[in-house]
């Protein structure tokens, strides 16, 4: 297998097009490759990731930047004038204290990083912004992705704003709101009969056949994945430039979890936060929990599964970054947990009723796992904890439709209201 190109003539980037990025580095054998639309190591087929030569970056420089992910542009593979290009300006979402939920779960110091307020209501706007910049640099004529839903929304919207053709591929059984949230931005939403892993395989095939297609999470994946680091940077900055003691992150491909860890490590190396231990926890739905199964079995290899869960955005049975998630969770002293669909639904309602935050099934999975980690004693409740909400509940309304209802339907009279006993 050779690394596919987006367009044969566009593999040499312009000077400074990728900021302080110096090349691509194999995560398995450390082989170095020049910057280009490559994602697999030519030596061992391992995944490539961006390597940098960071300049001295100060907190003040970052704080003087825009209130979006481009405040961290020095740490991303993007040009110095990235703010000038048409993009969705995602990021710098709220970090909320969650005292009510903390009291409910018995956690002393709990925060929710709420990424559901991004432009298309999930954290995927972060990764897509970086992937789009790379796609433009590689002169891609089509901006595309295989998606479990949220990525499709983000790609379709970002492509529309940038004026580039988008084609997004989703499993045909995806939640209706996520389908509509893509179709409104693009006339090329393709529903594939199969699960995400089938869709992903198809995307890799198309990437090999078609010239000029940038699949954000396939052939420009190294650039795409770096966008997830901004979630980690923001949490540290919003905590007053320090790292939390522990963090709970949902896992589908595992990219987001590994990049938050990478972000924390970079901040330590750059002297922007104090070096300290922190624990990383991964959250999966039991119906698609290949990483949690491997963690609990104490093995290093991840055996792919066939997903069957309401947490469709996390339904990746063969996670590309699964082994790295295992490694990080074990090395930091965290864990990987999973929860049933019923626990996912309960957790969605719990977060809504304690903190006024309506999360989608991915957040239900994360909060459900947080609860389970406390109950099983795997999480130290005296430590400062951050839980990430990655997507908005309006995208998965059906998941809780049977869980909640109107309290009463009454005639418009005081007597009728009084009879309900609500007052
Ligand atoms: C809402 C939401 N949370 C979390 C994830 C997991 O992301 P990753 O594939 O980086 O593990 C996804 C993936 O699509 C998602 O849509
Ligand atoms: Zn390699």
Topology diagram in text:
Elements (H helix, E strand, L loop, with lengths): L20 E6 L5 E2 L14 E5 L6 H5 L31 E3 L1 H7 L4 E5 L9 H14 L4 E5 L3 H13 L2 E7 L4 H8 L5 E4 L3 H14 L3 E3 L5 H6 L2 H10 L7 E5 L4 H15 L9 E7 L4 H8 L24 H10 L4 E4 L1 H15 L5 H15 L9 E5 L7 H5 L12 H7 L3
Parallel strand pairs: 5-13, 6-7, 6-9, 7-8, 10-11, 10-13, 11-12
Antiparallel strand pairs: 1-2, 1-3, 4-5
Helix pairs in contact: 2-12, 3-4, 4-5, 8-9, 9-11, 10-11, 12-13
The structure holds pyridoxal-5'-phosphate and zinc ion.
The site of zinc ion has 8 residues, from loops.
Features:
alpha/beta; binds zinc ion; binds pyridoxal-5'-phosphate; 15 helices; 423 residues; 6-stranded mixed sheet; 13 strands; 4-stranded parallel sheet
């Amino acid at each position: 297998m050779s690394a596919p190109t987006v367009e044969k003539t566009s593999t040499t980037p312009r000077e400074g097009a990728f900021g302080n990025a110096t090349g691509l580095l194999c995560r398995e054998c450390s082989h170095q490759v020049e910057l280009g639309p490559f994602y697999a190591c030519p030596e061992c087929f391992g995944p490539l990731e961006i390597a940098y030569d960071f300049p001295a970056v100060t907190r003040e420089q970052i704080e003087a930047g825009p209130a979006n992910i481009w405040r961290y542009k020095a740490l991303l593979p993007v040009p110095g004038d990235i703010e000038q290009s048409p993009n969705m300006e995602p990021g710098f979402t709220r970090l909320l204290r969650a005292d009510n939920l903390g009291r409910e779960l018995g956690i002393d110091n709990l925060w929710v990083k709420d990424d559901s307020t991004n432009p298309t209501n999930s954290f995927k706007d972060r990764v897509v912004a970086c992937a789009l910049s790379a796609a433009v640099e590689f002169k891609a004529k089509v901006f595309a992705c295989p998606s479990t839903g949220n990525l499709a929304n983000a790609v379709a919207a970002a492509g529309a704003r940038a004026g580039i053709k988008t084609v997004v591929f989703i499993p045909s059984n995806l939640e209706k709101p996520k389908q509509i949230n893509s179709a409104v931005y693009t006339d090329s939403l393709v529903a594939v009969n199969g699960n995400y892993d089938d869709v992903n395989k198809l995307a890799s095939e198309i990437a090999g056949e078609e010239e000029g297609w940038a699949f954000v999470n396939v052939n420009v994946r190294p650039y795409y994945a770096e966008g997830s680091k901004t979630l980690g940077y923001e949490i540290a900055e919003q905590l007053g430039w320090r790292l939390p003691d522990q963090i709970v992150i949902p896992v589908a491909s595992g990219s987001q979890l590994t990049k938050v860890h990478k972000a924390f490590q970079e901040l330590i190396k750059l002297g922007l936060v104090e070096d300290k231990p922190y624990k990383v926890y991964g959250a999966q739905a039991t119906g698609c929990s290949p990483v949690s199964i491997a963690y609990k079995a104490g093995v290093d290899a991840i055996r792919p599964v066939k997903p069957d869960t309401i947490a469709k955005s996390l339904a990746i049975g063969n996670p590309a970054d699964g082994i790295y998630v295992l490694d990080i969770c074990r090395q930091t002293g965290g864990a990987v947990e999973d929860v049933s669909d019923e626990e996912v639904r309960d957790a969605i309602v719990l977060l809504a009723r304690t903190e006024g935050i309506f999360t989608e099934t991915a957040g239900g999975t994360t909060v459900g796992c947080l609860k389970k980690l406390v109950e099983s004693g795997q999480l130290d409740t005296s430590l400062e904890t951050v839980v990430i909400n990655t997507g908005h509940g309006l995208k998965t309304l059906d998941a809780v439709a049977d869980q909640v209802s109107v309290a009463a339907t009454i005639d418009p009279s005081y007597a009728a209201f009084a009879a309900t006993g609500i007052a």
